[in-house]
Amino acid sequence: MTTPPTVDVHAHVLLPEIEALVAGLPGLAEAKDLDARRNGPDALRVNGPMIGERIARLTDPAVRLAAMDDRGVDVQLVSPSPSHYHYWADEETAEKVYRLANEATAAHCSAAPDRLRGLGLVPLQHPDLAVRALGHALEQGLLGVEVSSHAPGRELSDPAYEPLWARAEETGAIVFLHPFGCTLDERLDQWYLSNTVGQPTENAVALSHLIFSGVLDRHPDLKVVAAHGGGYLPTHIGRSDHAWTTRADAGAGCDHLPSSYLKRLYFDSLVHDPYVLRELVRVAGAGRVLLGSDFPFDMGAEDPLGALRAARLSDADFEAVRGATATALLRKD
C-alpha cells in the first residue's frame, strides 16, 4: 500500500495585490485603527518585522516548497492571510477582493499543483455574494473557502448564511474557519493576548454558533475545518453538554448533545500542547484531526510533525492526523 503524504491544512499566502486594491478606500483606515486598538502598540511593533522576515515564504512558491521539504511536509492546503478578509468593504469592493484573492491563490498553487492546494475567500459581510464567491473559488480549482468567526453584526448562525452552507455541502467544498480579530477588543491589547486568548475564544464562539443553532443538523455533510484545534471548545465541551441537558434555552436549537457534533467537524492539530492534542483526538476522533502548522507565522509550529509525535498517539491515530484523513478530504472528484 502507498503511504499517504504528510498534509498541512493550515498554511497561508500573502497577496500584496489585495492590499494594493483596497489602499486608500473609505473604511480601510477605520478597520486598521480597530485592528491596532485590539492588538496594542507592542504587538504591532513586533508584527511588522515578523512579517518582513517571512515575506518570501508567504509569496514565493519555490521558497514555500523548500520550507515544506525541510519540515517533511508533502502537501499544503494554502489559504489567504486572514488580513485579506476586509469585511468592512462595500459590495463592489468585496467582489473585487474575493475574485482577486481566489485567482491569486490559485495562481500561487499552480506552481506545484500536486503539492499545493488552495482555498479562496467569501465576503461574509455581504451574504448575498457568498454563494457566488464560493462558486468562483471552485471554478479556479480551489477546494473551498476560508472564513472568519463572524462578520460585523453577523454570527455564523445567521440565517442569511444558509445558502452558503447549503451550497458548500452540495459541492463538497471545505470551509476553513480561521478567526481574525477578537471582539473582546482592548481588554486583550497587551502581551499579545489578542492572539493567545482571542483566537481560541473566537473559535469556540463561532463553533458554538454552528452547533447550538442547528446549522450542523441542517447540513450534516458540511466540511468545516476549525483552525487552532477549535480553540477552547473541545476541551471544555462538557460545560456545553451540561447546559444542553439542563436548560431549555440552551437545548432549543440543536438536536443532539453538543459534544456529538465534534465528530462532524474537522480540527487542525495546532494546539501547542501534546496533552491538549491527545484530548482533542479523544473527543473528536483521530479521523477528525488534521495536521496544521499556521505556516509560516510565528504563532505556528516550526516542526508540526515533531509536535504530533510529542502527543504519543497510537500508530493508527498518528497516521490519520499526519495525512491519511486530509488526503481523503482534499481529494477532488
From TrEMBL:
Signal peptide: none annotated. Gene3D superfamilies: Metal-dependent hydrolases. InterPro entries: ACMSD, Amidohydro-rel, Metal_Hydrolase. It comes from the Bacteria. SUPFAM superfamilies: Metallo-dependent hydrolases. One of its GO terms (cellular component) is cytoplasm. Residues 7-331 form the Amidohydrolase-related domain. GO terms for biological process: secondary metabolic process. This is Amidohydrolase family protein. It comes from Streptomyces boluensis.
